[in-house]
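Dear all,

This email documents one entry for the complex benchmark we are building for the journal club exercise. For each entry we list the sequence lines for every component of the assembly. Then comes the predicted three-dimensional structure of the complex as a token string, followed by one or two observations. Please use this as the template for your own entries, and keep the labels exactly as they appear.
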Amino acid sequence: MRVFAIVVAAGSGSRMNSKIKKQFMELAGVPILIHTLRVLEQSPLIDQIVLVIGQEDLERVQALIDRYKIRKVTHYAAGGQERQASVWNGLQVLRALVDMQQDLVIIHDAARPLVSTTDIERIVESAREHSAVTIGTPAKDTIKKVNNGWVEETLLRHQLYAVQTPQGFRASLLYEAHEKAMRDNHLGTDDASLVEWAGAPVWVVEGSYRNIKITTPEDLQIAASFLQEENIYGGKGNGMRIGTGFDVHRFAEGRPLVIGGVTIPFEKGLLGHSDADVLLHAVKDALLGAIAEGDIGQHFPDTDERFRGANSVDLLKHVWQMVKERGYRLGNLDCTIMAQRPKLRPYIEEMKAVLAKELEAELSQINVKATTTERLGFVGREEGIAAEAVVLLMNVL
Ligand SMILES: Nc1ccn([C@@H]2O[C@H](COP(=O)(O)OP(=O)(O)OP(=O)(O)O)[C@@H](O)[C@H]2O)c(=O)n1
Ligand SMILES: C[C@](O)(CO)[C@H](O)COP(=O)(O)O
């Protein structure tokens, strides 16, 4: 028995009232859709994902899937007018892939990025046993049926659940319910309700109140605060990460001297596989250190021809993206360049501006100092230049 997921991401997000569709809005530096797909990607129980998206978003989504290395999305389906039509389109694609009698289909809203692998596990386990299941939480509020502003009935709260996704089904059961709903023009707001309407029992698995659907602007704040509390990419902590970096390059004739992204007129430059920007290398190492991602040698090996002569600003952009994807922004950065010659003071403001631009920070968050070593050591003998950096990252909220 295999488990397929259909993720519906073709909504217009009208209640979010934003220029960007909500599935592409960022939470802790990562698009909501990617948060959601990452959880399914991580769950060992999900074999393949069919992603339902607006056709106009296909290219953009494929680029995101590549960039974030989501491997389980193997098929795409076009969105429909309503959520139900989107699921139906996903089921059409799925039909060619599944064994209708054996396999399970999990339906999940792209707009629920706080789903956990435990939620998925519980839905899959339960769907194996009960054939049609939804996750949900007991109602916290008293719910009233209202007609034209007047209360018609107060429902018995102890019987009420607010249901979410994921919802899980034996493939044939869900397909037939959707097919019947299409034929009879029956519209439901979730998939379980179609199965109920078609006459099959649906089991409810108790889920988590955290698994909210990002629907209106305040949901973004709630979701972001859950992420911050979990500090999911940084491990448990107080939302701050510190890192240090150090680098040295020897002088060489006939090369430009590039420090902090600034080309400095001098009789020689620094030797290296890349552009040998000693300051940016130290900064990148500090950033990677702060997010516990090793060092630049690991990410941009000097044995790799792609990085020959590489522009360190481009590599800094890459590292900074890694930092943002883990939910951090710059607190502050302090750097020291050790050089006997040339005099670096005239270039320091320019270096700070490069760093501020690339690290999306204010100049006041960045400090660059330069010192000689009083003619002592390899720096003093003008054999090379060294740089060190200390960085503090803060959780995004
Ligand atoms: N025609 C639609 C409508 C919704 N969805 C998806 O179904 C999920 C739940 O829907 P909802 O939160 O209502 O999203 P939107 O329809 O985008 O929002 P709104 O109703 O505010 O316009 C979302 O992941 C959404 O992208 C979809 O795939 N196709
Ligand atoms: C499927 C669902 O998420 C269950 O709560 C919900 O019904 C989707 O409703 P929407 O109006 O499409 O957001």
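Observations: The chain has twelve helices and 18 strands. The first strand starts at residue 3 and ends at 9.
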